[in-house]
Specification:
Blueprint (H helix, E strand, L loop, with lengths): L5 H11 L4 E5 L2 E4 H17 L7 E5 L4 H12 L3 E4 L6 H10 L4 E5 L3 H7 L8 E5 L8 E2 H6 L15 E6 L9 E5 H14 L8 E4 L6 H14 L2 E4 L5 H11 L3 E4 L1 H7 L4 H4 L7 E4 L6 H11 L3 E5 L9 E2 L13 E2 L4 E5 L12 E6 L6 E2 L3 H6 L1 E2 L2 E10 L5 E6 L4 E3 L2 E3 L1 H9 L4 E11 L3 E10 L7 H9 L10 E4 L13 H6 L6
C-alpha cells in the first residue's frame, strides 16, 4: 500500500479528473479543479492565522459542499481536523475541544448559539471562521476566505505519523476518546473502499446522507469520492422524500445508510419508489442489519443491500459482503483489501472458526492510538491487533458475523444471551417496527432480558402476545422477561440505537 498524504493524493486525483464533478450539493456542482482551488485558498488563510502543522481545528458543520471544502482545506494546511457531532450539547463539545486542545473552529451559522455558549469554556480557541453571511468583527467569513485566490502552504508530511483527523467515539462508557487517524490510515482505507465496493472513478455518484462528521460517512461517502475521483452528493438531513428527490435529480448510484434509515424508507409512498432506480446497490453499516428489514427493503425497491462493518478506530471500514459475489445474510462479509481480521479469546489467543470471541483488526487502517490516552491505547491492543470490543465469529468461508457488543451481552443464570439474536426474532413479528434488547440486573438470576418495542402504526401488542411469539423461537433463558412499549427508541446522529439511555430510563412494564 502506497504511503501518501491526503493533500498529495487529492492533487493527483484533481489533476486526473479536473473537469469531473467532485461535489453535487443540491444541484450546485463543484469540479475537482474548483475544489482544489477553493481548498487551497482556505489552507492559505488558515496558515496566515497561524494554524498549520501541529494545530487542531474543529469542524462544526451540516452535510454540505462547505464541509468537504473545509475538511480538505484543514488537512492541506497541515492541521488536524476534529469533526464535531451536531447533536452534542455545548458542554459535551467543550469537553472534546479542550481535550483535543483545539486552536480554531470552522462552523456553520446554524450553530451560532452553540459556539457562543462554548466560547468562555474552551481554553485555547482563538480563530473563528463562520460559514454563513454577515459575520461579526471577531469572526472571519468562510466564503470570503475560499474565494480569495492564495497559494496553499507547502507542507512536508510524514503520512504514517502525521494526524489528518481525530474522531471522538460516542462515549458509551465514560468520556469520549479521540481516535487518532493518520494520513496513511485514511488513504489506505479509501483505497480499500473503492476496490472492495467496486466503485468506478469518473462515473459513480455517492450519497452522503449520514452525518459527515461520522467515520462511516466521512470515509465512504466523502473522502473516498474526493480522493479517488468520484462524485459525492451531500444531503443536509435524512428525510425520505428529500433523499428520494435528491437521488433522482442527481442520478446517484450508491447509497450508504444505517439499518434504521432503511427501516424508515420502507414507509415511503409507492410513487416515490422509482426515484431510487438510478442506484446500483446500497451499503449498510454502523449497526447490525436485521434480516427482516433487509428483505423488506429489497422486495420494495429491488436494490440489494451489502452489509459491512468497521469501528471508528479502523478508519473505519474493515468488512463488506462482496459486491456481485456471494452475499451471506446476517454476515458483515469478508475483510476488505489491506485489512486482516481474527477472532481472539480474552487472553489474546486465536479461536477456531465458528467460535465466538472478540473481533480484532490489523492493517494500515488501524489508528495510531487514542489522543492523550496511552493506557486506554495499550488496553485496546493485543500486540498489533486492535480489539474492537465486538463479539463475533468467522465461518469456514472466511465471512465474519457480529454477535454483539461485549458490554451488551446479558448473562442469565450463567448463560450468555446475545441481544441481537433476540432482536432478530422480535423483528419477525408483523406488528413490531423497531426493538432493542438489554439486560436488567436481577438478584435471583443475575440479569434478565428486557425488550423495548415500538409497534407499527395502528397495531396493539401486549407482553403476553410477544412472549408467546418468542416461545418456540428462543430458548427459555433468552425470552424477554420484561417488555416496554414505547413511542420511539433513543438514537444518536447516525440512527444507532442508544441502549445506554434505555438502561438509564425508569419505565413501567406492560
Amino acid at each position: 500500500m502506497e504511503k501518501i498524504s491526503l493533500p498529495e493524493l487529492f492533487r493527483n486525483t484533481a489533476e486526473k479528473y479536473k473537469d469531473f464533478t467532485a461535489i453535487n450539493f443540491s444541484g450546485k456542482k463543484t469540479s475537482f479543479h474548483e475544489l482544489d482551488r477553493l481548498s487551497d485558498n482556505l489552507a492559505a488563510s488558515l496558515s496566515h492565522n497561524g494554524l498549520t502543522k501541529g494545530n487542531r481545528i474543529a469542524l462544526y458543520c451540516i452535510n454540505s459542499d462547505s464541509f468537504a471544502i473545509a475538511y480538505l482545506g484543514i488537512v492541506k494546511a497541515g492541521a488536524t481536523v476534529i469533526p464535531l457531532n451536531l447533536l452534542q450539547t455545548p458542554v459535551e463539545i467543550s469537553y472534546i475541544m479542550n481535550d483535543a486542545d483545539v486552536n480554531g473552529i470552522i462552523y456553520h451559522e446554524a450553530f451560532d448559539q452553540a459556539v457562543e455558549a462554548i466560547r468562555s469554556n474552551v481554553h485555547n480557541l482563538e480563530t473563528y471562521i463562520r460559514i454563513g453571511v454577515n459575520p461579526n468583527d471577531e469572526v472571519q467569513d468562510f466564503h470570503t476566505l475560499i474565494q480569495t485566490d492564495s497559494t496553499a502552504p507547502e507542507i512536508t508530511f510524514n503520512p504514517q505519523d502525521d494526524l489528518a483527523a481525530i474522531l471522538y467515539t460516542s462515549g458509551t462508557t465514560g468520556k469520549p476518546k479521540g481516535a487518532m487517524l493518520t494520513h496513511s490510515n485514511l488513504a489506505s482505507n479509501t483505497d480499500s473502499v473503492i476496490k472492495s465496493i467496486k466503485l468506478i472513478p469518473g462515473k459513480d455518484i455517492l450519497v452522503a446522507v449520514l452525518p459527515m462528521f461520522h467515520a462511516f460517512a466521512a470515509t465512504a461517502a466523502m473522502l473516498t469520492p474526493m480522493l479517488r475521483g468520484l462524485t459525492m452528493m451531500p444531503i443536509v438531513k435524512f428525510e425520505p422524500e428529500l433523499l428520494a428527490n435528491s437521488i433522482h435529480a442527481g442520478k446517484a448510484t450508491i447509497l450508504f445508510a444505517v439499518p434504521s434509515m432503511y427501516n424508515v424508507l420502507l414507509n415511503m409512498k409507492e410513487e416515490q419508489v422509482a426515484k431510487l432506480s438510478s442506484l446500483r446497490f446500497c451499503v449498510s453499516g454502523g449497526a447490525a442489519m436485521p434480516e427482516k428489514i433487509m428483505q423488506s427493503f429489497e422486495e420494495k425497491f429491488g436494490k440489494l443491500i451489502y452489509e459491512g462493518y468497521g469501528p471508528t478506530e479502523c478508519s473505519p471500514v474493515t468488512n463488506v459482503n462482496p459486491i456481485g459475489g456471494t452475499r451471506k445474510i446476517l454476515s458483515v462479509g469478508l475483510p476488505v483489501e489491506h485489512v486482516s481480521l481474527c477472532i481472539k479469546d480474552t487472553e489474546g489467543n486465536d479461536l477456531p472458526n465458528n467460535e465466538v470471541g472478540e473481533i480484532c483488526v490489523r492493517g494500515p487502517n488501524v489508528m495510531k492510538g487514542y489522543w492523550n490516552r496511552p493506557e486506554d491505547t495499550r488496553k485496546s491492543f493485543f500486540g498489533d491487533w486492535f480489539r474492537t470490543g465486538d463479539l463475533g465469529k468467522k465461518d469456514d468461508d472466511g465471512y465474519y458475523y457480529i454477535v454483539d457488543r461485549i458490554k451488551d451481552m446479558i448473562i442469565v443464570n450463567g448463560m450468555n444471551v446475545y441481544p441481537r439474536i433476540v432482536e432478530e426474532v422480535l423483528y419477525q413479528h408483523p406488528d413490531i417496527a423497531e426493538c432493542a434488547v438489554i439486560g436488567i440486573d436481577d438478584k435471583l438470576h443475575g440479569e434478565i432480558v428486557a425488550a423495548y418495542i415500538v409497534t407499527k402504526p395502528g397495531t396493539e401488542l401486549s407482553s403476553s402476545d410477544v412472549r408467546s411469539f418468542c416461545r418456540d423461537k428462543l430458548g427459555r433463558y433468552q425470552i424477554p422477561r420484561k417488555y416496554f412499549f414505547i413511542d420511539a427508541l433513543p438514537k444518536n446522529a447516525t440512527g444507532k440505537i442508544l441502549k445506554r439511555e434505555l438502561k438509564e430510563q425508569k419505565l413501567e412494564t406492560a
